[in-house]
TrEMBL record:
UniProt-listed Enzyme Commission number(s): 4.2.1.136, 5.1.99.6
Cofactor section: K(+); Mg(2+)
Protein name as annotated: Bifunctional NAD(P)H-hydrate repair enzyme
The organism of origin for this protein: Streptomyces apricus
Domain YjeF N-terminal span(s) in chain numbering: 10-210
PANTHER family: ATP-DEPENDENT (S)-NAD(P)H-HYDRATE DEHYDRATASE, ATP-DEPENDENT (S)-NAD(P)H-HYDRATE DEHYDRATASE FAMILY MEMBER
Family: Belongs to the NnrD/CARKD family. In the N-terminal section; belongs to the NnrE/AIBP family.
UniProt-annotated binding residues for K(+): N59, D120, S156
Binding residue positions for (6S)-NADPHX: 58-62, 124-130, 153, 251, 305, 350, 418
Length: 476
């Protein structure tokens, strides 16, 4: 499991460790890791031009110590001091001893334009409220140069705890982060600014819960339902799909396609698109009545392409089995009915649907995804999977939010969400809890999207078909 910790927890872990170590040890560990990463980016260090952007805190000090190491290996290092009278004195002295030179912020443009590498030590976890204008002006210049950019701990200007970006921020090719990932490195929009991320172990230990968790192959493999020798289709779980309408029969077909690949032993379909479903998937158990009249299921999926069938949504919410609500179902679901449920509920909105549920603009959700998903989980007393560039899954309470690491832009295609709801619903029916079903579903769905796309556009049915390949990938 990959984890990310809040600034508060990182600071507590640092205090605890610093109390047991001689002064400066942690910073030297950080600087050594940073210098090694910079050397990797440069390929050859000797003779290269490196510019350090140095703010007033320890983030700038890391950059200075790493710069000193690079200067000793023959790089030409220039430190741009954004707050000359508040620069970390020992770190500055170390750079000067190693032969580095310094310039004030006002003279930064010329060295920046000639740089091979820019090291962003403007602010790290101590940064608040976006960049100041002088730093923001430098960010614009970096954007125009050909230099590689390595961010120290975080790209300056992004919010470490939330992944929000207010105003301009450094766009890095690589971020070298210390001790633990910070939430902003895993959640968009900040994640996009970080480039690839390298974690340097400086010895921090975390007794408490992470803010974010990202499943890896091994975690997913452990959670996937595997039939036992004595399993029959009912023990493996039956998932009910109440989706589609005469206007949108395709949504039913795609949700069933996803459900068939999610590990349930059987898929039951209820709704007006039974013929379309059967034509494509004859193994589906189709009934034409209401969800209450269908046979027993272990979990329901309701909503994809459902049009205005509020009765089906209400009926499904009234059951005592786990329920996944997607698409039209989110609009039709009564909030009190969701809150009153005793069995697990998983809501799967995209940003637009989440915005409607929260009564805010879509941009607000996209700019503050972590806050939005936590807020929805609280308001609805349900697990919420917020789809998008970084899919997040949150349950009510303070536990870690899951962030999906496998997403791909190719999944932004019509019907792809229907496949995900079938897939995650099937995992619910197979016995996973809502947080696991949502995050494992998103993981497989993302991998399947990558597999199916392989560099070219895909349709949602391609994604559904590639889920089996993704499953094999994970369990290999
Ligand atoms: N504490 C430790 O033991 C370690 C800290 N490390 C480094 O220390 C960093 C944290 O250092 P600090 O707590 O000194 O904080 P930072 O260096 O992140 O930033 C704080 C300083 O920046 C200024 N500042 C805040 N917001 C700003 C903004 N928007 N624009 C411009 N200036 C702004 C503040 O006035 C303050 O002086 C970490 O990110 C990491 O790079 C590492 O050396 C590892 C060890
Ligand atoms: K930084």
């Amino acid at each position: 499991m990959r984890t990310a910790y809040s600034v508060e927890m990182v600071r507590a872990a640092e205090r605890e460790l610093m109390a047991r170590l001689p002064d400066g040890v942690l910073m030297q560990r950080a600087a050594a890791g940073l210098a090694a990463a910079c050397a990797d980016v440069l390929g050859r260090v000797y003779g290269r031009r490196v510019v350090l952007l140095v703010g007033s805190g320890d983030n700038g000090a890391d950059a200075l110590y790493a710069g000193a190491r690079l200067a000793r290996r023959g790089a030409g290092v220039t430190a741009v001091l954004l707050a000359p009278d508040r620069t970390h004195p020992e770190a500055l002295a170390a750079l000067r001893r190693a032969g580095g030179r310094t310039v004030p912020g006002a003279d930064a443009e010329e060295p920046l334009r000639r740089a091979d590498l820019v090291v962003d030590g403007i602010v790290g976890i101590g940064g608040t409220g976006g960049l100041r204008p002088d730093a923001a002006a430098l960010v614009d210049v970096i954007g125009e140069t050909r230099a590689a950019v390595v961010a120290v701990d975080l790209p300056s200007g992004v919010e470490a705890d939330t992944g929000e970006v207010h105003g301009s921020a450094v766009r890095a090719d690589l971020t070298v982060t210390f001790g633990a990932h910070k939430p902003g490195l895993l959640v968009d929009p900040a994640r996009e600014y970080a480039g690839s991320v390298r974690l340097v172990d400086i010895g921090l230990a975390f007794p408490g819960e992470a803010e974010l968790e990202a499943l890896q192959h091994a975690d997913v493999a452990r959670l996937l339902p595997v039939p036992a020798a004595e399993s029959d289709k009912y023990r493996r779980g039956v998932v009910g799909i109440a989706a589609g309408s005469s206007r949108y029969p395709g949504a039913a077909v795609l949700a069933v396609a996803g459900a068939l690949r999610g590990g349930a032993g059987a898929v039951r379909y209820v709704g007006p698109a039974g013929d379309a479903v059967l034509a494509r998937f004859p193994e589906t158990l189709v009934s034409t009545g209401t969800p209450e009249q269908a046979g027993r299921v272990q979990a329901w999926v309701v909503g994809p392409g459902a049009g205005d069938d509020a009765d089906a949504v209400a009926a499904v919410l009234g059951t005592d089995v786990p329920v996944l609500v997607d698409a039209d179902g989110l609009r039709l679901a009564d909030r009190d009915a969701v809150r009153a449920r005793r069995a697990p509920t998983l809501l799967t909105p995209h940003a637009g649907e989440a915005a409607a549920l929260l009564g805010v603009a879509r941009e607000e959700v996209e700019g503050a995804r972590l806050r939005a998903v936590r807020e929805l989980a609280e308001r609805y007393a349900a697990t919420v999977l917020l789809k998008g560039s970084t899919t997040l899954v949150a349950s009510p309470g303070d536990g870690p939010v899951r962030v999906n690491p496998t997403g791909t832009g190719w999944l932004a295609t019509a019907g792809s969400g229907d496949v995900l709801s079938g897939l995650a619903g099937s995992l619910l029916a197979a016995g996973l809890d809502a947080l696991d079903a949502g995050s494992v579903g998103a993981y497989l769905h993302g991998l399947a999207g990558r597999r199916a796309a392989d560099g070219a556009p895909v349709g949602a049915h391609d994604v559904a078909e590639a889920v089996r390949e993704a499953w094999r990938d994970v369990t290999d």
